[in-house]
Design goal:
171 residues; alpha+beta; 7 helices; 13% strand
Length: 171
């Protein structure tokens, strides 16, 4: 998956870019706009980012679940080996430990992640705080990425343009 980034100065340029993308067959579900004031975007009917895109909520929650699940596996294995409380803890006990620790790890990671800016957006945060708009477009293939660049280069004057060739919300 590819993510294309275009940093533009005005809301009018965002509207022109989104109309060009719509004419090219790139749907609204593939575009997100980051700005200081998401309320302004919503009032205009533009798809603003959510905490899923703005923060590291998903990434840290995912890693927290993995770490918690691993710890749960160790704790479950240890408990099944020592049989505490005179009760034999078998496979079901290990599974319950993995689920409990994994869920707790996902929650802890999510709480930590929601307090951090998304690492993919860090190069643009200073400009966003200064009032710029960051247009993000997710595409699946190289030809689509090139088509998005052609459409946006023809329709807007970007202050900065970039893309990630192996974008994943988890990593």
């Amino acid at each position: 998956m590819y993510r294309v980034y275009y940093l533009v100065r005005s809301l009018d340029q965002v509207k022109v870019a989104l109309n060009g993308l719509k004419r090219a067959g790139i749907g609204d579900n593939r575009t997100h706009v980051v700005t200081r004031d998401n309320g302004q975007l919503r009032a205009e009917g533009i798809h603003a980012t959510t905490p899923w895109e703005d923060t590291n909520l998903m990434t840290n929650g995912f890693y927290g679940a993995l770490i918690g699940g691993g710890l749960g596996l160790l704790v479950g294995w240890a408990l099944s080996g020592i049989d505490p409380w005179g009760v034999q803890i078998g496979f079901l006990g290990v599974v319950l430990c993995v689920l409990f620790f994994g869920a707790h790890g996902a929650w802890t990671g999510g709480m930590w992640g929601i307090s951090q800016n998304n690492r993919h957006l860090k190069p643009y945060l200073k400009d966003i705080r200064r009032g710029f708009y960051l247009l993000m477009v997710d595409v699946d293939s190289e030809p689509e990425r090139e088509r998005v660049h052609r459409v946006l280069d023809a329709s807007v004057r970007a202050e900065r343009r970039d893309d990630e060739s192996s974008f994943s919300p988890f990593f």
